[in-house]
Amino acid sequence: MGAGAAGLGLTGAEGGIEIAHFFLVLTCILIAAKLFGELAERIGQPAVLGELVAGVLLGASALGIVPAEGTEAALIHALAELGVLLLLFEIGLETDLREMFRVGPASLSVACVGVVLPFALGYVFWRYVPHAMSGGAINTAAIFLGATLTATSVGITARVLSDLGRMNTQEARVIIGAAVIDDVLGLVILSVVSTIAAGAAISALGVLRTLTVAVGFLVVAVLIGRFAMPRLFDLVVRMRVRYVLLVYSVAFALGLAALADLAGSALIIGSFAAGLILSGTNQFDTIEHEVRPVAAIFTPIFFVSVGSSVNLSLLNPADPAARSTLAIAGVITLLAILGKLATGWAAPWERFRRVVVGVGMVPRGEVGLIFADIGRRAGVLSEEMFGVVLLMVMATTFVAPPALKALFGRGAE
Amino acid sequence: MGAGAAGLGLTGAEGGIEIAHFFLVLTCILIAAKLFGELAERIGQPAVLGELVAGVLLGASALGIVPAEGTEAALIHALAELGVLLLLFEIGLETDLREMFRVGPASLSVACVGVVLPFALGYVFWRYVPHAMSGGAINTAAIFLGATLTATSVGITARVLSDLGRMNTQEARVIIGAAVIDDVLGLVILSVVSTIAAGAAISALGVLRTLTVAVGFLVVAVLIGRFAMPRLFDLVVRMRVRYVLLVYSVAFALGLAALADLAGSALIIGSFAAGLILSGTNQFDTIEHEVRPVAAIFTPIFFVSVGSSVNLSLLNPADPAARSTLAIAGVITLLAILGKLATGWAAPWERFRRVVVGVGMVPRGEVGLIFADIGRRAGVLSEEMFGVVLLMVMATTFVAPPALKALFGRGAE
How many CA atoms lie within 13 A of A146 on its CB side? Predict the structure, then answer.
């Protein structure tokens, strides 16, 4: 009780936020997301593109409705996180684990090439090609820039594939598998760049441990879960309280996400694993059917939140500083796209449309921003370099959905 | 971007909360809510009782898993608020507006008696009957105590009626109508007690204005909404994006709740009105069907949150101070129950089971706590008096669900 009670029902001010205002922001996010999603679909683009645009408009650099800082921002963030967890959970539920294993080697190869090649391209360009931002601690800066190019946003691609009804294609399986592996590799890269940012030496043992924990968690969770959960859910389904199956499935997804994070892996890997595990239960049809509307409310909050982090002032060509940033960002974006596009050819033994997989790996989404933000806070990336990375992330995130849609529109190979 | 990005995906610490820990707390809340809900049902009690018990156990005075203060508490609170808004929205959707109007006078009479009688009983007891806590600013204290007795928690009763499948009975309509009117009257009382707490004089004009705004908002919203929304939703349904009907319905409920609050009315009145309004659309079946699973996830968070505000240490009979508090709380609780029970006979012209309506009005839930908390903060209520109110709120909240279930179990009059 105590401090909390005053905000429980009638009045509303609690923990520093005005609850009515928070709900109003949420209302704006939901309305704008669906409105722009609809507009995107009407002009032949995936709905998620519209949701990202809605986020840009509601963000701090435009209308300023979605807050960037403070308790209310933390609240929106938590709901956005809930949205991406539910999305990955849903995708896990829809994933055929046996098929995933079959394309496993292809996904692994795609993921690895998609980390090494973009990193190399970014590093070499920044270190060895003279450009307007050369100078300073160039080696560290080049490593950071390379790191931001390695990310893949599984959220964006998965959502587009799901919107297009292509989750059951060979390409989708390879991409989702590779994107999940990329998230695991991302954790390793994150620990490396954090070490560099802190000015410490990188230890091979530390890197190996991070990798082992991240991979180990996923493997152990899926192995134990696929054995235990079908039995547990056969008991849960005998409970009488309403929606117990749904509530326990969501609780499992959130719990496993939290455990994954605490074990040194990533939240979204945990909820994806939860989906994979529950797809082996006898009740997975009901679960999927009931989870969908819940995910439908929260997923758009995630994409609007990602869009709202875009800084529009970087795009003003009238500003000379913006022009120089734009020029370098153009080169980096090209490298970012080429580096990921090439991954389509990383698994020559597997039959799939190479360009579709390549394009599916392009969007950096929020993951690239995290690396960049660490670099900026540590003073390794200048404001201008941070701007370049931001533009690259924006461009790759916005270019992939329409490209994927156009490619799938052309039918199978 | 900026401050927000570091917590977007992989790591997790943001705005002062550890997101993984927050999801873990959420997992505990959901699992405990359904587990104790199931236990309650198995021993013949309504599920909501189990959820309240789960809250007591998870709360600060027992396991301490649900936090009472800080950003994480604010987050849980926001989700709990979302839960009660969705519950009231769902109940509004299921409510037949014409039937509500028909029982309107009965509800009004029940609500008014349920405010005046408990207030009078509480005031007279505290002011004129000598007891262990007599002394001090007794008139102001007596007014506050009386005020805490006037509240009705529409959430608790509505949930029980809904769980029992009795939302379509005459009794349910009278209770829900009266509870909503009680919330409006509660706003008026809140403004009066806040004025008293601030040491200012009460102005009849101020009271009248609060009443007008609260009632006016509900009437205007429903009148305009019932005209405009069916036409608007006939357009919405022609949109192609997935779940647009659901997302826009929820956005409407949250938006109207926020507007209600900003207009000086209450959040839950806004979302109830939103439900009433959308029950007039051609799509209300689909909306109801899709809103249900979403509400099913968040409603338990509300009841667990209410339960978590219970202070178990007040119930320790080995403590002499607790014994004296318990004794006075026993008397106050009796007055609280009698005062509301009598409301069943407040509308003699209407045919319904009087004791069912009386019992349905008994639970004070979170609303009574809000009044008490204002009194405590202003120094008008001592810690002991606050303890008395807390016990009264707990007892009335816990006694009503099993009583209602038992009464309905005995069949119609």
Answer: 21
pTM, two decimal places: 0.83
Nearest chain B residue to A364 by CA distance is B9
Nearest CA among B183, B215, B186 for reference residue B91: B183
Phi, psi angle pair for A13, to nearest 5°:
-75, 120
Tens of pLDDT, residue by residue over A136-175, are: 667 778 888 888 888 888 778 888 888 888 888 888 888 8
pLDDT at A263 over 70: yes
Phi and psi at B309, nearest 5°, equal -85, -5
The C-alpha atoms of residue B48 and residue B156 are separated, in whole angstroms, by 7
pLDDT digit string (tens) for A22-56? 999 999 999 999 999 999 888 877 788 888 889 88
CA distance B274 to B292: 15
**What is residue A49's three-state secondary structure?**
helix
CA atoms of A124 and A352, how far apart (whole Å)? 31
Read off the pLDDT of each residue in A205-211 and give the average, rounded to a whole number: 78
Between residues 133 and 172 of chain A, which touch chain B (CB distance below 8 Å)? 163
Angstrom distance (rounded) from CA B67 to CA B196: 31
A200 touches chain B (CB under 8 A): no
Q: Is the pLDDT of residue B69 over 90?
A: no
Cα–Cα distance for residue pair B374/B378, rounded to 1 Å = 6
CA distance B36 to B307: 12
What stretches of B95-169 show up as alpha helix (H) in DSSP?
97-102, 104-128, 138-150, 154-163
CB contact under 8 A, B242 and A47: yes
Q: Where are the alpha helices (DSSP H) in A43-103?
A: 47-58, 71-94, 97-102
Helix ranges, A95-203 (H): 97-102, 104-128, 138-150, 154-163, 170-197
Interface predicted TM-score (ipTM) of this complex, two decimals: 0.82
Most confident residue range from A338-342, A343-347, B244-248, B347-351: B244-248
A65 in Cβ contact with A36 (< 8 Å): no
Q: Which pLDDT band holds residue A94 (cuts at 50, 70, 90)? A: confident
What CATH class has A14-409?
A: mainly alpha
Selected residues 279-308 of chain B with any CB under 8 Å from a CB in chain A: 290-294, 296-297, 300, 305-306
Domain boundaries, chain A: 14-409
Q: Which tokens sit at B219?
A: 């009437």
d(CA A138, CA A144): 10
**How many residues make up chain B in this entry?**
413
Instruction: Name the most confidently modeled range: A120-129, A390-399, B86-95, B238-247.
Output: B238-247
Average confidence (pLDDT) over B10-14:
38
Q: Could you tell me which CATH class the domain B15-409 is placed in?
A: mainly alpha
B75 inside 8 A of chain A by CB: yes
Chain A contact set for B182 (CB, 8 A): none
Residues B193 and A148: their CA atoms lie apart, in Å, by 57
